[in-house]
Every structure is written in C-alpha cells, then in structure tokens.
From TrEMBL:
Keyword Transferase set for record: yes
SUPFAM superfamilies cross-referenced by the UniProt entry: PLP-dependent transferases
Organism per entry: Acidihalobacter ferrooxydans
Protein name stated in the entry: Aminotransferase
Family indicated by similarity: Belongs to the class-I pyridoxal-phosphate-dependent aminotransferase family.
GO cellular component terms, A-Z: cytosol
The protein's enzyme class: transferase
GO process terms (BP): L-phenylalanine biosynthetic process from chorismate via phenylpyruvate
Amino acid sequence: LLSSVALAPRDPILGLNEAFAADPRPDKVNLGVGVYRDAQGRLPLLRSVREAEQRLVGEAQPRGYLPIDGLAAYDKAVQALLFGEQAAVLAAGRVVTAQSVGGTSALKIGADFLKRTLPAARVAISDPSWENHRAIFESAGFEVGVYPYYDAATHGVNFAGMLDGLRALHVGDIVVLHACCHNPTGVDLDGAQWAQVIEVLRERELVPFLDMAYQGFGEGNEGDAAVVRMFADSGLAVFVANSFSKSFSLYGERVGALSVVTADADEAERVRSQLKRVIRADYSNPPTHGAMLVSTVLNTPELRALWEEDLGDMRDRIRSMRRGLVARIAAHGDPRDFSFIVRQRGMFSYSGLNAEQVERLREEFGIYAVSSGRICVAALNDANLDAVATAIAAVSA
Ligand code: PLP
Ligand code: TYF
C-alpha cells in the first residue's frame, strides 16, 4: 500500500526553517518565513495578549465545544475590525463570519464552499502570490491560473497587465486578491487602482476573494481595512479571509476568520448554513483559546488600546528597518537604487536578488531568504542589519 507513496516536495518557505535550524553558524539570519521579530530578534508575546491570557486563566472557564462557526463575540469583533463598527452591510445583516483555524483555513473553507456553489469556476491568483493560495484552491478542486501583478522592471505593479488579465477571465471566475501588504512582493494597489479593479470584476462578473493576513502592517487597522470596505460597498458578493497570526503574534494559536458579504440577511443565513456544513466535515468546530484571547483584547477597551500601540510599534519598526537597509546598502557603495524597499509595505520585500544570489547569501553568509528573492524585513534588527546589507551588496555586485 504505502510502498508506492512518493516523497512530497518540502514547502519552499517552511522548509527553510529546517535548514536554518540545522545551520551551526552563530551569526546566521533567517529572512525566510514571514514572522515578525522584535528589536532583540525575539518572537514577541504582546502585552495585550499576556494580560488577556492572565484574565482567562483567572476565570478558569470550562472548555466546551464552540459553535461550528465559532465564538460569537469573536466573530462580531472581527466584523467590526474589517467592515467598521457602523458599516451598513453589518447593520443590514448581510455579512456572515465564521471563526477559522488561521487565515489558511478561512481560505480553505471559502474555497470548499465556492467549489460547491460554482463548480465550473476557475481561480486566478496574482503572479506571484503566496504559494499556498494555489495549493489551497487546487485541493478544493479548482483549476488555478494567474493574473499579471508584479513588474520587476519598476519594482511596482503591472497595473495595465493586471486589468487585462482580469478582463480575460471567464464570467464567474474567482479572483484572489491581497487586501494589503502583498506577499511576497510588498507592493500594493492604491485606492484609485482598487476602484478600477472593482469595476472590472463587476463588468466581468468575477468573484473577489480578499486575503488579509497583514491588517495593520500597511497603514494601520483602519487604513488597511479601507480596501475591504470598498469591496463591501460595491454590492458584489465578497469573500474575505483574515488572520491574526501576525497582527497578534499568535501564529501557533491559529486564529482567523472567513467573512462573506451577501446580498441580504436571508442570503446570509443560507450561506452561513453551507459554511457550517463545510466546517463540520472538516474540523467540526474551531478551537477556543486563540479566539478567546483575540476576542478579549478586541472587546476590552484598555487591552485593545495596548494592542493597537504594539501593532503600531511593529509597523514602525519594520519601516525603520526598511530605511536602515537601504541606507546601509548604499553606504557599501552599491550604485544601484534600492529605495523601492522603502516603498514596499508589510513584512516582505522582493529584493530583486535571483536564486543564485540567494544561494550565495545562504552559503557564504548564513543569511536565509526565499529563492524568489523575497526577504522578511520584519526579521531585521540593529544587530543583523549591517551583516545583511554587506551580504546583499556583496552578492549583487
Ligand atoms: N495569506 C497570506 C498571504 C499569508 O502570508 C499567510 C501567512 O501565513 C496566510 C494567508 C495564512 O495565515 P495563517 O498563518 O493565519 O494561516
Ligand atoms: O509566507 C510566509 O512566510 C508566511 C508563513 O506554507 C507561511 O505566510 C509560509 C508558508 C506556508 C505557510 C505559512
């Protein structure tokens, strides 16, 4: 039975962690996986999370099953964070939100639901995208293609190409879009471009599926949610997968949600019933702890204020590391202009390094990055910045 099982390829990003862990060099730097580290290079436990956890431990609540679609107070807080406290779509009961096992399962629940609803649709992801987008939608049974996105020549978006790519899709196709802090490129659309994308989706009757794994890391919670709100106000059916892995530094607790904007409250209840059917057959109901932490923080004003402050600090620190990296590469006399790194947003930068240069970074300098040239800027700090800049200047000379 098992003798014919082939060895599956390693995840290109998570696989790097294993290689990094096995590297004996003391000054090694992991710029591979998208994880935020603080100025001391540590994975933070946010003050708001620590405090919420202490309160929860003090309450010593029993752990029954949650409802299939999750903790109600959590789902409600997620809706307010994404769509705005006063959103018309919320007042009208048009949004269904189901707690999920991180952003990954929000995508998978949405994908499984869509496969039942639109069996003939195809899925288009950005070129490039988070590789798991392809894997998730393919495993739900979809054919997955790409639409143009990144323009290596300008280190920006190939916007005309993107619109043409979207226009070439079939009616009913599903379009996966990064709401902010595009992974892997760090390059986002501006508001006017989003408005044009929405118009093309409307004309071509395409289905938007927004993935927001980095809310707060671009312009802050409200600024980053503006994209979601534009879509919510468009009148289109919209899918939104969101994650708190990064913004709460709760990677291992697996906290996320899927929200679907529907036409009316009746449609919302029918969609909810189908999402619950998908979830039931997948993991039955979600885990309690992470959602209780996030719900406690979001629903307790003083903890929420602490969280917003910590999230702002993470965002500011990443920005200062971007500036520091560009300045230090320039100080090495590298004549090329790396200022695009400052314009990119979120945890990542498409550095422009090729696979060979990335390999040299690893072999010669113990600096780990994804072979596409993606570096996790959120793993830089004052202690490793110089070494990274020196190495980048050396391999790209
Ligand atoms: N979507 C994108 C673009 C991501 O980068 C990630 C990161 O892990 C996810 C979704 C999944 O988030 P989670 O770790 O919460 O499953
Ligand atoms: O892109 C990243 O680094 C994060 C973490 O299969 C991640 O999104 C990477 C690969 C993967 C799951 C999560």
